[in-house]
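Methods, example record. To illustrate the input and output format used throughout this study, we show the complete record for PLDc_N domain-containing protein. The sequence lines were provided to the predictor; the line carrying structure tokens was produced by it.
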Amino acid sequence: MPRFVLIGVIVVAVLIIYSLIDCIMSKAHEVRSISKTAWLFTIVLLPVLGAILWFLFGRPMHGPEPKPRATRHPTAPDDDPEFLRNLEIRRRQKAKEEELKRREQELADREKRARQKNDDETPSP
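The corresponding predicted structure is encoded as:
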């Protein structure tokens, strides 16, 4: 009887140690269900249950490699071709608007000079 208890204690200890090492060695983005830190606490605080839960729900799936999560790094605006394209479009639109305003002002000035010229040329009765 004591031999079976000793074997059981050894099996449980190996299970807990193996699950802790497996959890520590796994990559954080591959761990399932909860975070890697939470799994470590679960295995330490609830040794047998935590180890069993780790193998059932937390351990990374081995087999077809899951696609790694795309990490998005903030880029500077001048590195983004779409931003540069939009910037160039806005610059051209602003230049066109300024040119249009300048031409409208020229036209208004010409009309004003033409009216003044016509008023000067017509004799008063």
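Annotations derived from this record:
The two ends are 137 Å apart (CA to CA).
The longest helix spans residues 81-121.
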